[in-house]
Amino acid sequence: MVLMPLVHIRLFFPFVTSLIILHLSGATKKGTEKQTTSETQKSVQCGTWTKHAEGGIFTSPNYPSKYPPDRECIYIIEAAPRQCIELYFDEKYSIEPSWECKFDHIEVRDGPFGFSPIIGRFCGQQNPPVIKSSGRFLWIKFFADGELESMGFSARYNFTPA
């Protein structure tokens, strides 16, 4: 029987957990998965792993109409080696406001995983500031609870030399 040292287990477990969460959220490197809401029976895009050399745009489900309840979408943006990411949120931005953004929110992390260093958690009517990654990945989670939906967001990203 081969035993892994405890330090390897501690480093490996969060990585596996993040991959499982990424798979369950529907984010894949091949493209966007489509999910159906029971409320509208309408297909909406929710989460993606994206790598477009020119940059791109992604939105909350149904934007600019209200996003559906009970939704978690993971967006991972990957830049080419030796490039960083700049992320801009459109001025037409509305996420259910709450103290410390405990309910509906957007969470941005500096790296490809849910345990990468947090850049910020955002909600309310004021769009977030321009966000710049320190490396070639950004991990973005949009979370909506079961109550009080709003318009959501549209975000645009591009790449800059590191």
TrEMBL record:
A Pfam family of this chain: CUB
The SS bond pairs are: C46-C73
Cellular component GO terms, alphabetically? postsynaptic density
What Gene3D superfamilies does the entry give? Spermadhesin, CUB domain
List UniProt keywords, sorted A-Z: Disulfide bond, Repeat, Signal
Extract the InterPro entries matched here: CUB_dom (IPR000859), Sperma_CUB_dom_sf (IPR035914)
- Name the chain's protein: CUB domain-containing protein
Please tell me the species this chain comes from.
Answer: Muntiacus muntjak (Barking deer)
